[in-house]
Write a structure and sequence with these properties.
four-stranded antiparallel beta sheet; lipid metabolism; single chain; about 350 residues; five-stranded mixed beta sheet; alpha+beta; 2 domains; binds ligand 2P0; globular; Diphosphomevalonate decarboxylase; sterol biosynthesis; Alpha-Beta Plaits; Ribosomal Protein S5, domain 2
């Protein structure tokens, strides 16, 4: 019939986010519920982002997905949770020009084709599931005319990957851990939009690394099981830091922002070291970058840069303004000359978002 030939598509773009108060540890592995709140900033989409096209057609016979043009399996529980949650909220969609109507009931039976691209080299070790699942939830929500707002969509993206819930918003974002066992109140809210503090410049120093890293998912699971420091951090330290960080962001107080960001990154890596067996994400180059930043901040009247490291050796450096960013790059080039083996590249951008 004529209805065999139609296809509906939606394309969305979502940047990755960098935590300044870290998420590390789950209280529920399946629903992906964290042991503490976290705060992040969303990057400029021109540098580290995912673009995802979702398509539906009666000619499709199964759900399929391609990541960077290679087909990947959708059979994992995390993909299935996201697809199930979005389908459950699908609404009637009508295209009068094509004479097509997809009802709520149809969405349960129709199959999807999903194509996703990262605009950053996976080899850089910056591949992040954060942008990917946020983009998938957002694009599917648009395709199926889901009425949920960004926070409610974030609770669905969260079930793909915890940090993904924070990429549904630009600017500064808080992932509230929530109290409910079913995860309904574990979602992201925007603290400040991308225009609020637009002096900040982010520089990512891509540190060469040949060693295989422990995945975040298994690493944090081992930390929850073995690190007493993690328990102390989640209960006693992070709740206070979250309040202080919210205050620093509200007041654009770079001195407090920098102090909290660096301290929280260092404590996250201390928790990794406190895990049995210990997990090492930073390497000698990472440690040298910390020393350079600390020494520079102490030699000035006020801090000029904040550093933070995730589950790998790359440094995310946040300069207080463009002048500080220029000085930062000069310092990095001095300590790591262009032909040195320690650093492979820099990615420079502002925080912001586009969809
Ligand atoms: C964060 N990280 O807050 C922390 C800091 C890495 C270090 O969120 O198991 O890929 O999919 O929920 O989100 C990386 O963990 O882990 C992460 P899952 P995810 O950004």
């Amino acid at each position: 019939s004529e209805s065999q030939n139609w296809v509906f598509m939606v394309t969305a773009q979502t940047p990755t986010n960098i935590a300044v108060i870290k998420y590390w540890g789950k209280r529920d592995e399946t629903l992906i519920l964290p042991v503490n709140d976290s705060i992040s900033l969303t990057l400029d989409p021109s540098h580290l982002c995912t673009t995802t096209t979702v398509a539906v057609s009666s000619a499709f016979h199964q759900d399929r997905m391609w990541l960077n043009a290679k087909e990947i399996s959708l059979s994992g529980g995390r993909f299935q949770s996201c697809l199930r949650e979005i389908r459950a909220r699908a609404c009637d969609v009508e295209d009068e020009n094509k004479g097509i109507k997809i009802t709520k009931e149809d969405w349960a039976k129709l199959h999807l084709h999903i194509a996703s691209y990262n605009n950053f080299p996976t080899a850089a070790g910056l591949a992040s599931s954060a942008a990917g699942f946020a983009c998938l939830a957002y694009a599917l929500g648009k395709l199926m005319d889901v009425k949920e707002d960004e926070s409610q969509l974030s609770a669905i993206a969260r079930q793909g990957s915890g940090s993904a819930c924070r990429s549904l918003f630009g600017g500064f974002v808080k992932w509230i851990m929530g109290k409910e066992d079913n995860g309904s109140d574990s979602l992201a809210v925007q603290l400040a939009d991308e225009k609020h503090w637009d002096d900040l410049v982010i520089v990512i120093a891509v540190v060469s690394s040949r060693q295989k890293e422990t995945s975040s998912t298994s690493g944090m699971c081992e930390s929850v099981e073995t690190s007493l420091l993690l328990q102390h951090r989640a209960k006693e330290i992070v709740p206070k830091r979250i309040l202080q960080m919210e205050e620093a962001i509200k007041n654009r107080d770079f001195a407090s922002f920098s102090q909290l960001t660096c301290a929280d990154s260092n404590q996250f890596h201390a928790v990794c070291l406190d895990t049995s067996p210990p997990i090492f994400y930073m390497n000698d180059t990472s440690h040298r970058i910390i020393s350079i930043a600390e020494k520079w901040n102490r030699s000035e009247e006020a801090p000029q840069v904040a550093y933070t490291f995730d589950a790998g050796p790359n440094a995310v450096l946040i300069a207080r303004n463009r002048k500080a960013a220029t000085s930062l790059i000069q310092r990095l080039l001095y300590y790591f000359p262009p032909n040195s083996d320690d650093l492979s590249s820099y990615i420079i951008g502002d925080k912001s978002i586009a969809k």
